[in-house]
Input
Amino acid sequence: MSTPAAIYLQDAHTIREGMALTQYAEAKGFEAVWQADSRLVRDCLIPMSAFAATTERIKIGSGVVDCWTRNPARLAASFSTLDDLAPGRIVLGIGAWWDPLAAKVGIRRERPLTVMREIVEAVRELLACDGPVTYNGIYVQLDGVELDYVHQERRAKEVPIYIGATGMQMMELTGQIADGAVLNYLVSPTYNAQAMDALERGAVKAGRSATDLDRPQLVVCSLSPTDDEADRRRALDNARLLVTQYLGQQPHIMKASGVPDEVLNDIAQVLTWPATHDQIAAASKLVPDSIVQMITASGTVDECREQVSAYVRNGATCPILYPLGDDVPAMIDAFSNWTAQ
Output
């Protein structure tokens, strides 16, 4: 039986190009498209709407919105509207964002577990369309709020909520309250073992198992179009630049993957935030192939498939492939009707 795959889009392509790639992925049997929303570059809701309007089957997820900048009532209204456009195909992926970006826009990420729980509970209750919602939380305050339909049918919206978790406390909360977990990228497959343990601890509190949750995983995929060594080197170098950027700006993810502290410290000496391309290129020389291939699927088709299979063997239910390089259809073709080994 083939293993489902999904595609992840950030801002490397125009929205119209993203629409075409989503249509191609749907035609090739991909399960979902996830649109990034973690940086101040592209709001996910507009491209998600475009993808929903121009496809018929593929699921469309936010990968991921943050839990701080959207009021839960507006968040529920936005995803209810998306469900009106593509009923049963929308997934709300939500995360706790990251510093220094959050701090630079005036957000203090205090009590993220409490905030996440309250947002998820409030949004889910609003999407149920069961009448006015009152919620007296530490962060969320709702006073008799509901999705105020006048002309459209009032119905419960089937929008599952997935939490994009990295730390084990957030992972445990995900197992307890979410419909699924969006496992992060730029982590090693072995990281998934502790993630699964944390999900299980949380799931048990809700009377279920971690295997009851969907667990798609973001995976950076830098695929060489041929087995030629020069093409393979270019694929590795493309991934190395992205790895270097994240080594500098999100070291908590890198540390969770087992990247040595000395590498993280060396990178931190070179990069500022936001890092310039020249800084990233200079710092990338400090990142060996072993780290690139430990936390990404990079190289030949066989190398990429093997690394993605390792994530699946360690708990991912569906790889969400983040394509690097120009030939995205080639990556889609490589993972169309493939089987994890």
Q: What stands out?
A: The first strand starts at residue 6 and ends at 9. The mean pLDDT is 93. DSSP finds 14 helices and twelve strands in the chain. The first helix runs from residue 15 to 27.
